[in-house]
């Protein structure tokens, strides 16, 4: 929804700025990213642009702190590398306020992925990835770098919702789909890239049933 907020794990400044630019184009009241988590430096603030203004985004050293300080964040976007993604995602799923997890890293060991999927199903948490670019819901939220640069979002009219939803395995293909759908219809309602791994956190079928 346009009120959904997220916590980003990792210092991905460009991805977060891209998400904020998308939010601003969608005329959201508040930025979709509420806080960032980076364990290798102290608690501090980083500067981002919100339209033409500057805003300060809190950066915490632990996921626990971030979740406590931002109780209305329901999405956890994990940019950790494949080495640490298992522990960080498990910790995030331990907090009841987190309802959706996106794992960007590729090369996550299959056994760890299967463990994560089991826990996510047990807790009723939606999981996108591993090895995904994320997903996009025009007018609401963009996960990570989905949809490419700003000019691409304007060209594919991803700032306003259409009526066609898609699921894709690949980030490049989902970008191409954005383009095709925008040229031949009223636009994208929602798009998800489930990632190219052997055991994706959510299958094509899960999303089709959700779209129904």
Short description:
The chain is of the alpha/beta class and 212 residues long.
Description:
With 212 residues, the protein is an alpha/beta fold. Helix content is 33%, strand content 26%. The protein contains 7 helices and 11 strands. It has helices at 13-25, 63-69, 85-93, 110-123, 150-155, 171-184, 204-211; strands spanning 5-9, 33-37, 44-50, 53-60, 73-78, 100-103, 126-128, 134-137, 141-142, 164-168, 188-193. The strands form 2 sheets. A 7-stranded mixed beta sheet has the order 3-4-2-1-5-6-7, sandwiched between helices. The protein has a 4-stranded mixed beta sheet with strand order 9-8-11-10, with helices on both faces. Helix 3 (85-93) runs parallel beside helix 4 (110-123). The longest helix has 14 residues, at 110-123. It is globular, with a radius of gyration of 16 Å. The protein starts with a strand and ends with a helix.
Class from secondary-structure proportions: alpha/beta
Portion of residues in beta strands equals: 25-35%
Number of separate helices: 7
Largest sheet: 7 strands, mixed
């Amino acid at each position: 929804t346009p009120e959904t907020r997220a916590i980003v794990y990792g210092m991905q400044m460009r991805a977060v700025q891209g998400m904020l630019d998308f939010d601003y184009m969608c005329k959201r009241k508040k930025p979709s990213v509420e806080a960032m988590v980076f364990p290798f430096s102290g608690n501090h603030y980083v500067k981002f642009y919100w339209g033409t203004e500057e805003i300060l985004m809190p950066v915490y050293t632990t996921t626990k702190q971030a979740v406590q300080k931002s109780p209305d964040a329901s999405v956890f976007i994990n940019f950790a590398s494949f080495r640490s993604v298992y522990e960080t995602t498990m910790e995030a799923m331990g907090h009841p306020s987190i309802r959706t997890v996106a794992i960007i890293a590729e090369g996550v060991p299959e056994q760890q992925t299967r463990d994560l999927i089991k826990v996510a199903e047990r807790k009723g948490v939606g999981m996108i990835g591993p090895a995904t670019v994320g997903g996009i819901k025009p007018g609401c939220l963009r996960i990570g770098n989905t949809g490419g640069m700003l000019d691409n979002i304007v060209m594919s009219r991803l700032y306003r919702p259409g009526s066609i939803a898609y699921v894709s395995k690949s980030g490049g293909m989902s970008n191409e789909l954005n383009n095709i759908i925008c040229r031949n219809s009223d636009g994208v309602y929602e798009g998800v890239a489930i990632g190219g791994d052997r055991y994706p956190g959510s299958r094509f079928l899960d999303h089709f049933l959700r779209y129904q």
